[in-house]
Amino acid sequence: xxxxxxKIFSLxxxxxxxxxxxxxxxxxxxxxxxxxxxSESQEIKIGQQEHPKILKTHNGVYEDAxxxxxxxxxxxLLASHSELPELKFHFTVLNDDIVxxxxxxxxxxxxxxxLLSLAENEAEVAGVLAHEIGHxxxxxxxxxxxxxxxxxxxxxxxGAVVGSQAVSQVAGLGAQAWLQSYSRGHExxxxxxxxxxxxxxxxxxxxxxxxxKKLEQQKKLQSLMAGKSGKEEYGLMSxxxxxxxxxxxxxxxxxxxxxIPGARLGRNDYLNIVDGMIYGDDPKQGIRKGxxxxxxxxxxxxxxxxxxxxxxxxxxxxxRGPDQxxxxxxxxxxxxxxxxxxxxxxxxxxxxxxLKIAGPERLEVNGMEAATATATINADGGKRNxxxxxxxxxxxxxRFAFLTPPKVTSxxxxxxxxxxxxxxxxxxRERRSAQPLRIGIIKVGKNDTPQSLSRTLPFEERKLEWFxxxxxxxxxxxxxxxxxxxxxxx
Length: 490
Description:
By secondary structure, this protein is α+β, with helices and mostly antiparallel strands. The chain is built from 16 helices and 18 strands. It has three domains: 13-274, no CATH class; 283-433, Protein Transport Mog1p, Chain A; 439-489, Roll (Membrane-bound Lytic Murein Transglycosylase D, Chain A), CATH 3.10.350. The relative contact order is 0.09.
C-alpha cells in the first residue's frame, strides 16, 4: 500500500472510530445509536433557544387558554407513559392554519390550530402528539445531526487528501439531506412509539390511522383546488415516507394491538373544545371570505374573479383560477424608500429591472397612485403573459401580478381589471366587521343531509368534499339526526 493510500485509510478510519465511541443506548428502543455530537443537555438547550424563533415564524401562540390546557393535558398524559417521563415537555398550539405538527429536541412539541380543525377526536390528536413525543424520546434529532457531522468530517478529510471537489460537494449534500427532515426509518420508529404511548395512555391507536387517512385526503383536496393533479410529488430531498405508506403501517400497528378495553376516542370532549376556534386566517394575517381578501390591520381589501381560489401565505396571497391563470399579490420590499418614486419608475427600475416590459402606464385606483405594465415570461408549462400592477397605499406599496397563458389572456382582461380596481382602503365599518371564520358544532336535524349542511360552508367550490373531510368519522355511518358535526361559520 502506498504512503498516500495508507494516509487516506488512516484518516478515513477516524469517523469510524468516532462512530464506535459515540454510540449510546436509545432510551425508547434500547438500540445502540450514534449521538456523539449532541448530548441530552444540548438537546434541551437547543429547544430553549429555538422556541422563540418558532413562535415568530409561525404566527405565535393561539391564545385560547382552555384549548392550550387541553392539549397540554393530552400531551403530558402521553409523555408520562414514555421512556422519558422525567423530561419536562412543552406543548404549544401555534396560531397557524397550515396543517402541521413537529418537535424540537428537548421536549418542545408544536401543533397548529389548522391541524386541530382537521382532527375529529381526541385520539387523533393524541396520535399526532405521541408521534412527535416519539421523535424526542428516540433522540432522532441527535442521531441525524451526529450522523451529518460525522459524514461531513469524513468526506471533508477525503476531499482534502485526494483533492476532489466532487467529494466535498457530496459532503454538503449529505449534511443538508440529514438536517432537512427525518428519515423514513425515524418516521416509522416514531409511529411505532406513538402506538405504544397511546395504548399505555388508554387511547385507541386507530386514531392515528384515521388521521393519516384524513391527512392524505386533505392534501389531495388542496392540490385539486390549487389546480394540480391531486397526486403528491416527492423529490430528492424528501426523506419522509409517502403518506399512503404511513397509513398502511399505522393501520397494521393499530391492528396489532387488537381491541383495547375501554380505549378512548374522546369525540364529544374534543368537539366541545374546538367549538368556536378560529378556522383559516386570523385577522392579524388578513382573512379570506369567499373571493374577498381583507386585511384590517394593514387597512386594505380586494376581490378576485369568480372561480378563483385564494391561498394566504406568509409573504404573499395567491389566487388560482381556470385555464392555469394565477394572481400573485404581495408587498414591495419595505427596506426600499419609495416615498418619492413614481410607480412607473418603481415597476421599471425596482420591481422587474431585467424584464422586457411594455409600458409602464400610469393609473389611479380609488384615489391611489398606481401603474401597470405587461411582459411575457417563460414559466413551468410554457410561456405566460404577465400584467404587473403597483399601487401606492398609505402604508406601503402593494403589487399584483396577473399570469395567464397567451391564448386566454384576453378572456381574463376584464376580470383582472376589476380585481385591480377593487383594491381599496377599508371603512371603519368594514374594519370592525372583518371577523374570522370559526368552527361551529351543531346537531344534525331530521331533514339535514351532507349536501344541505355543506352548502353553508364559505368556500367557492368543493363544499361537500370539505364538509366530508372535517367530519370523516361518524363511526362509518350515514349522517343521522342528533349527530354532532363541524361547520364553518362567520
